[in-house]
Amino acid sequence: NAGVTQTPKFQVLKTGQSMTLQCAQDMNHEYMSWYRQDPGMGLRLIHYSVGAGITDQGEVPNGYNVSRSTTEDFPLRLLSAAPSQTSVYFCASSPWGGGEGNQPQHFGDGTRLSIL
Amino acid sequence: AQSVTQPDIHITVSEGASLELRCNYSYGATPYLFWYVQSPGQGLQLLLKYFSGDTLVQGIKGFEAEFKRSQSSFNLRKPSVHWSDAAEYFCAVDFTGGGNKLTFGTGTQLKVEL
Question: Is A35 in contact with A44 (CB distance < 8 Å)?
Answer without folding.
Answer: yes
